[in-house]
Amino acid sequence: MAEEKEKKEEMVPVTAEYAVVDQVDDQAIVELMTGQTIQDYVYSFKQGGRTVEGLTLAGINEAANRRGGIQVEEVKYEELENSWIATAKAVDTITGSSRYGAYEQPKMAGGRSDPFAFTKAIHKAQRNAIKQLIPVPVIREVLNFYLHRKAGSGNSAPQQQIPQAAGNIAQAQKAAFAIANNLAEPLEKKGITKAALWDYIKRKYSVESRNDMSEMQWTQLSAELKAAETTPQLLNDLCERIKQLTAAVQESDVPPSEEPTEQETTSTDEIEGKGTEAKGTPF
Fold first, then answer.
1. Does 7 reside within a domain?
2. Which of 25, 68, 110, 215 could form a disulfide with 57 if both were Cys (CB 3.0 to 4.6 A apart)?
3. Is the pLDDT of residue 14 over 60?
4. Contact, 54 vs 208, CB < 8 A?
5. pTM over 0.70
6. Is 142 among the domain residues?
7. Is residue 249 assigned to a domain?
């Protein structure tokens, strides 16, 4: 009985954990949509005498990228008077398993209309579906990696993480390449060329070459492109952002950026280890 009582006292209320996760993920989604750098891949807080740790939306996307083979095949949404309801179906192409995720997002936040309410509903529904398909060892790997990074552990840790980080960047690149290739035709139908997409990516992340992009930036880009791939409204939003950037560049008389040179392609291919995969990508 005493042991059972102790366990009950240490249990974290589900609503408490969900509240923390939603706050962190809300911030990540806003950062994603406004071109900022996502800060938190994990959450960690004290509650009920124990430490609660887990992956945020960005962390779940990172874990899915590392695992590979997880795709969102279906996203549906419904607008209610005071909220958006979204459902998503994620499929593990390796095992054939599939899971559904859902989320209802209020249209108001802090007493004001939330311009990102629809986007939050879509991303959180996908998060809830994808998370169910990620193997526990992969979740633990990503969780431990970012918790150690966040804590800033001793001098030996960064040395051990260098090879792993290079591999992470390659995986994140591959994920972005694959999604971008899938988006090439839908984007062209809406008048967005590969050059325009690359120029948008370069200016958004303030880089001159794709080799300058960090692991976090590749993961953020993958999330943005994946959202556009799975949801027509978010595809339209992406096209609108690209067109707005192109118009702004033209108005400021800044010469348009060129696509990456063959030298850049070769350099990144060496990181990936597969020279044929990156060819034909918009960046």
1. yes
2. 25
3. no
4. no
5. no
6. no
7. yes
